[in-house]
Amino acid sequence: MDTPGTSSSSDKERMEAAETAITMLAQGKRNMVCGEIPNAVNQFQEACKVLAKAYGETAKECAEAYFYYGQSLLDLARMETGVLGNALQGEGEEEEEGEGDEEGEDEGETGGEGDTAEEGETAEEGDTAEESQEETEGGEKKENPDDISNLQLAWEMLELAKVIYLKEEDKKSKLKAAESFLKLGEISLETENYEQALSDFQECLKIQEAELEPDDRLLAETHYQLGLAHGFNKQYDESIDQYRKAIKVMEAKIGKLKKTVEDGTQGKGKEPQAADDPIKAAQQEIKDLEEILPDIRGKIEDMEEEKKNIDELKSITKDTLAAVASELKPAESSEPKKAASDISHLVRRKRKPEEESAEADTKKTRQEEGSGDTEKNGK
Questions:
Q1: Same-domain check for residues 66 and 152
Q2: Which residues, in sequence order, are CB contacts of 372 under 8 Å at separation 6+?
Q3: Where are the TPR repeats (predicted)?
Q4: Taking the CA of residue 290 as centre, how many other CA atoms within 13 Å lie in the half-sphere pointing to its CB?
């Protein structure tokens, strides 16, 4: 790709490139709506290549293509993770069935061969898709494409889009920068880098609060993502606070929409509503928001329950440690200790004078008797 400012494309070539890219972007967006994520990735990647060649890699004209390319790669990574998770779950179920059903061994073997064949075909298709995706990534990154995951490439594209948008001063670019921060935060959630996710979401919120109305749904989405990040990071109070803020924004939006419906329906009677009627659109949005609210309230209940369980566990652990510590104290610690200055039990007591005199007389008498006996024997 050409470096910024060195593109030799003529104005005509740039216009043609822009038209081609617009078509690719539109097709890619349609693919995303239809759930055809790999096709969307290919369309956005080609749009990035065309625009970067015509305008330069860091030109503002490339920002939108970079953003959608990154977003589609994030969706693709999530899709692949989901497919892998389902495959592993199915494999575990097959093992359990094989262990439990010994009587139907022959049937199990027959079924196993069929499953294996199907799994082999699926694996081959998956390998082909991965190889195709690696080739797609290789078209954008020339160095070691096999070492770059979809999440990593998504992060790089969204980071580049964010940097370009932040250079612009118009409201639309600022909000796209905020959206780039939001998607970068989602990538950090996927990789369990919760501190970075919180940082990205907070930057997103900062821009949105400066540019949007207090009841804008984008604010509610960012508060919700902050609630998720705090919850994963074991910050339960902060998580609950963010979920409540999301609910507050949505309730304000519902109130505003209901007023729009009331004002719009006055004096109209029962006239049929057109498909693009603003009142009908407001009613549908109210319905959508009211369906989302129970889910967020459920998140708050989950956080409160988890916080309660953690507090109980801490209390039990504290009591257990205290009990163990008391059992480990020496048994003699409960017995009275002798004063260090009392050494009477270590010193031999001095005999009284009368005891010493009596003992001496006894010894003298014994000696005299002994000498008398000796004289008699000698005679």
A1: yes
A2: none
A3: 178-211, 220-253
A4: 10
Return the number of other C-beta atoms located less than 10 Å from residue 56's C-beta. 19
Which single residue is written with the structure tokens 């593109």? Answer: 7
The phi-psi region of residue 267 (left if phi > 0; otherwise alpha if psi is between -120 and 50; otherwise beta) is left
The number of beta carbons lying within 10 Å of the beta carbon of residue 349 is 6
205-210: Cβ within 8 A, 24+ apart: 205/178, 207/174, 207/175, 207/177, 207/178, 207/181, 208/175, 208/178, 210/174
Q: Can you give the CATH number for the domain in which 155 is found?
A: 1.25.40.10
Is there a contact between 62 and 157 (Cβ–Cβ < 8 Å)? no
pLDDT digits (tens, 9 = 90+) for 197-218: 999 999 999 999 999 999 999 9
CB atoms within 10 A of CB 166: 18
Looking at the fold, whether 172 and 288 belong to one and the same domain comes out as: no
Per the domain annotation, does 297 fall within a domain?
A: yes
Please give the Cα distance from 227 to 231 (Å, whole number).
6
Residue 304 inside a domain? The answer is yes
Answering whether pTM is above 0.90, one says: no
Two tokens at 297? 């309230």
Spatial contact of 157 and 76, defined as CB atoms under 8 Å apart: no
Domain count, the chain: 2
Residues 171 and 68 placed together within one structural domain of the fold: yes
pLDDT tens readout for residues 47-96: 999 999 999 999 999 999 999 999 999 999 999 887 655 555 655 555 55
Residue keyed to tokens 């200790």: 337
* Same domain (yes/no): 27, 160: yes
Q: How far is CA 9 from the centre of its chain?
A: 45
